[in-house]
Design goal:
Order of helices and strands of chain A: EEEHEEEHHHEHEHEEHHEEEEEEEEEE
GO molecular function, one term (chain A): ATP binding
Strand content of chain B: under 5%
CATH topology of the largest domain in chain B: MetI-like fold
CATH superfamily of the largest domain in chain A: P-loop containing nucleotide triphosphate hydrolases
Number of strands of chain A: 20
Strand content of chain A: 25-35%
Distance between the termini of chain A: 39 Å
Number of strands of chain B: 2
GO cellular component, one term (chain A): ATP-binding cassette (ABC) transporter complex, substrate-binding subunit-containing
Oligomer: heterodimer
Protein name (chain A): Glycerol-3-phosphate transporter subunit ATP-binding component of ABC superfamily
Structural class of chain A: alpha+beta
Radius of gyration of chain B: 23 Å
Largest interface: A-B, 21 and 13 residues
Pfam families (chain A): ABC_tran, OB_MalK
Strand order of the largest sheet of chain A: 6-7-8-3-9-10
Helix content of chain B: over 70%
Number of helices of chain B: 14
Largest sheet of chain B: 2 strands, antiparallel
CATH topology of the largest domain in chain A: Rossmann fold
Keywords (chain A): ATP-binding, Nucleotide-binding, Transport
Number of helices of chain A: 8
Order of helices and strands of chain B: HHHHHHHHHHHHEEHH
Shape of chain A: elongated
Chain lengths: 367, 267
């Protein structure tokens, strides 16, 4: 039982509060990802769990036991750093067995665990190399191996893939996921990369400026962002977020944009709840929900609009099209094979069933 | 062997550099009469009498021993004080840290002579005059700041995560410092020791003033070669050559890390 509890955790540097009253439960064997832009407090939070930063207020408990005053080594966890932090003067074997030797694990047990972990991570032929003789990916594996041999109850990862090139990052991402399935430990993973968060996490915690913006499974965050920040942060390219004003016409509500574009809010049971006539809102629509209209012929005609193509970004499998619809600029998505050129006039269909509406003032989701 | 054109300048420069040292070696292997009578590029009759005198006469070789003793004490004290200080400067932020760090270096900006009088007065009061420790402590004034600066540079090159990993692995601070950190900065420690050694070894003013007989440094002993009958050229040259030897030995050990040391570890 190694659930981890943040109870109103606060971090202050002098008088500046950087983490504000975080409450969060991490479940046993969960893969939890803390994600947010730099300076949002995610690394600070992780370092407080590890015991490398003092907790200014509140408590962190591991398995029901408050660990605020425990030294890092007494908390039963292992940490993997962005720059690997391997001991340069020790070879791979010594690096991996280091923690075990310190707590006087018997020699043959150390050897067994190191060999076993080395095999899992494909390091068995590198055990006698020094860190400077290894590639970035191998070093990253050693850093993970060093954490694994100690069989900790909780793994902490602090941006472990940020120093790797794009290709290796994808490969290691898969290996970390595999590691979690194999060791079945609780993992807390910090990253600024929302793709890593989405692909790895059981649950994601989105942080900004020391506050939790939203906690949820990757799909929850993707399909039901709680506010404009989460909406814009999760997903590539980011969701289109467009300022508009609500206008009631009879039983229907419309979003009115600067320049005259009008988009109907799809009718539903509760579609007028929570709106005010004349309310300033932000409409959110993911790029994949805006397509050239012939790709989505089933959508009603009132959801189709003429647009002017301003920028075309072909990615091969798909093309991102920056389109101007009556002065409102947004990004649409098209299939990769279609040839769309700068300056084309084209009809675009919006799948408004997937529309999000946020209050402009509070930024919270209201639809 | 073909020597490239551009190398001529280097060879010429090298000869200019080595000439004084060669000349001293040349003189040290000749008798005074020989030195003064004829001009010769090399000793015609090699004699080791000058060296024998230094190695057999206690008033001569004790000068070397005294110098080595206080230089060693000084190097050890400087390192032992500078290591924790440099660690603090490289790892912690505290009020006035950068000012204090700079202030350390200002100690090196004053000429040694400024401190001569207060030191003499102070050491007389405590009865430390003519002891090895007196000279060693006096040289700390210049060596500790330098050592802190060099070591800080080397330590800052070691990522903080190494420290943190060691704590999570279960090391206590002293254990970490001795087992993980020291091996990582050992070249820095070597270079620092070299700089402390060098300064203390060549410093004459403080060393001579604070000692009389018991802890008299070799540089002071060398002034004895001037006498009413003239200068003992051969003996002086031999003593000079022997003074170079320890420095050259130490340089040999830290030769690969010297450049980084001159840049105060910040490369």
């Amino acid at each position: 039982m190694t659930e981890l509890k943040f109870n109103n955790v606060i971090k202050r540097y002098g008088k500046t509060e950087v983490v504000h009253g975080i409450n969060l439960d991490v479940r046993d064997k969960e893969f939890l990802v803390l994600v947010g832009p730099s300076g949002c407090g995610k690394s600070t939070l992780l370092r407080m769990v590890a015991g490398l930063e003092a907790i200014s207020d509140g408590t962190i408990s591991i398995g029901g036991k408050v660990v605020n005053d425990l030294a890092p080594k007494e908390r039963g966890l292992a940490m993997v750093f962005q720059n690997y932090a391997l001991y340069p003067h020790m070879n791979v074997y010594e690096n991996m067995s280091f923690g075990l030797r310190l707590n006087k694990t018997p020699k043959d047990e150390i050897d067994r665990r190191v060999q076993e972990t080395g095999q899992i991570l494909g390091l068995e032929n590198l055990l006698h190399r020094k860190p400077h003789e290894l590639s970035g990916g191998q070093r990253q594996r050693v850093a993970m191996g060093r954490a694994m041999v100690r069989k900790p109850s909780i793994f902490l990862f602090d941006e472990p893939l940020s120093n790797l090139d794009a290709k290796l990052r994808i490969q290691m991402r898969a290996e970390i996921k595999l590691l979690h399935q194999r060791v079945n430990s609780t993992i807390i993973y910090v990253t600024h990369d929302q793709v890593e968060a989405m692909t790895l996490a059981d649950r994601i915690v989105v942080l900004r400026d020391g506050y939790i913006e939203q906690v949820g499974s990757p799909m929850e965050l993707f399909s039901k962002p709680a506010n404009t920040f989460v909406a814009g942060f999760i997903g590539t390219p980011p969701m289109n977020l467009l300022d508009a004003v609500i206008k009631f016409r009879g039983d229907n509500a419309f979003l009115i944009f600067d320049g005259g574009l009008e988009i109907p809010v799809p009718p539903g049971d509760t579609h007028l709840n929570g709106f005010r006539d004349g309310q300033s809102v932000v409409m959110g629509l993911r790029t994949e929900e805006i397509t050239p209209s012939d790709l989505n012929p089933s959508l009603p005609a009132s959801w189709k609009f003429d647009g002017l193509v301003e920028v075309v970004e072909p990615l091969g499998n798909e093309t991102h099209v920056h389109v101007n619809i009556k002065g409102v600029k947004m990004i649409a998505r098209s299939e990769g094979r279609r040839s769309i050129k700068y300056g084309d006039s084209l009809k675009f269909a919006m799948n408004l069933n997937q529309m999000h509406i946020f209050d402009a003032e509070t930024t919270l989701s209201i639809y | 062997m073909k020597i490239k054109k551009r190398n001529f300048a280097l060879v010429f420069y090298f000869i200019l550099l080595m000439l004084p040292i060669y000349w001293m070696l040349n003189m040290s292997l000749r008798t005074n009469a020989d030195i003064l009578s004829t001009f010769s590029l090399y000793p015609k009759e090699i004699t080791f009498a000058n060296y024998m005198k230094i190695f057999t006469d206690p008033s001569w070789y004790s000068g070397y021993i005294n110098s080595i003793i206080y230089v060693s004490i000084n190097t050890v004290i400087s390192l032992v004080t500078a290591l924790p200080a440099a660690y603090a400067f490289s790892r912690y932020r505290f009020i006035g840290d950068s000012q204090m760090f700079f202030w350390l270096l200002t100690n090196r900006m004053a000429p040694a002579a400024v401190f001569l009088l207060p030191f003499f007065q102070l050491y007389s009061t405590f009865g430390l005059i003519d002891t090895h420790i007196a000279v060693a402590l006096a040289h700390c004034l210049f060596n500790v700041p330098l050592a802190v600066w060099i070591l800080e540079g080397f330590m800052s090159g070691i990522p903080k995560e190494i420290d943190e990993t060691a704590y999570i692995d279960g090391y206590s601070f002293p254990g970490f410092f001795a087992m993980v950190f020291m091996p990582l900065i050992r070249s820095g420690v070597g270079v620092t020791a070299f700089f402390c050694f060098m300064f203390s070894w060549v410093e004459l003013l403080l060393a001579r003033t604070l000692t009389t007989t018991e802890a008299k440094p070799i540089a002071a002993t060398m002034t004895r070669t001037v006498s009413a009958t003239g200068l003992d050229w051969g003996l002086l040259a031999a003593a000079g050559i022997l003074t170079i030897v320890p420095g050259a030995l130490v340089i040999w050990f830290v030769r690969n890390h010297m450049a980084k040391g001159f840049a105060m570890g910040r490369v």
